[in-house]
Design brief:
Two copies of one chain form a homodimer. The first copy, chain A, contains seven helices and no strands. Chain A is mainly alpha-helical. Chain A has a single domain, classed as Ribonuclease III (Ribonuclease iii, N-terminal Endonuclease Domain, Chain A), CATH 1.10.1520.20. The longest helix of chain A is centred in the N-terminal third of the chain and has 23 residues. Chain A is globular. Chains A and B meet through helix 3 of A and helix 3 of B.
């Protein structure tokens, strides 16, 4: 079972399942649906921070799929997984790490806002998230 | 100037302007753009909490406009303001209160998840948010 921080998150996210491995997280499409909202919010905050004014943005799924590949996480998914489901995998992992108290929203915003290029920003956030799973 | 909680939020949201009154917050469309991402995230979390499984959802702007009216905040906007801009006003106020540390994400989720009906949920969150401005 993955590292969690139960003191911080106990009962708060009772709707999140227990997962046996990374692949199971990456392939949970319900988790990805919540992750979509999370990713757009973190990205909007990072963009606001970088530009100095409030901004809202939806992250293009092609960019998330590209970030998954660059972070070498693409291979955890079955061959033939389409780009949309690759983007889902990114959303699922990022929100999972947040719900488990392994990365705060603020840390996510900071990680993203350090990069000008979206794919690089999400690649870096994915790598940090994967690392936190194994704390 | 509105109540803020600078100890908690200092420097964190430097991209948020100072506003002189409620109307100015409600009419800030840039703030609403960030607020759109915030509202979808809080709503998705509340829905996940209520249903017991991760969910993602976008809140219909008609429902937000209706909540604004029910919370008696519609009158702060000029006559003839369309529904889309009424929904923007809701998004702007809710994210403003969060950025100022006047309401946590968790409090927002709790407030929303207590209501089965979306308009009632947002009406209640709007009233609580307005109240926090004047702490």
């Amino acid at each position: 079972m993955f590292a969690t921080n139960p003191g911080k998150q106990k009962g708060k996210f009772a709707f999140i399942s227990k997962y046996k491995d990374l692949r199971e997280i990456l392939m949970d499409h319900k988790l990805a649906a919540l992750g979509d909202a999370y990713v757009n919010f973190v990205y909007s905050l990072a963009l606001s921070k970088r530009t100095g004014e409030p901004r809202g943005a939806k992250v293009d799924s092609h960019l998330l799929a590209e970030a998954l590949k660059r972070a070498r996480l693409r291979n955890f998914l079955p061959r033939g997984t389409d780009r949309h489901k690759q983007a889902d995998a990114v959303e699922a992992l990022l929100v999972y790490v947040w719900t488990q108290g392994l990365m705060t929203l603020e840390e996510g915003v900071d990680a993203l806002s350090q990069h000008e290029e979206t794919v690089g920003a999400f690649c870096s956030l994915l790598l940090a998230s994967k690392e936190r799973l194994h704390l």
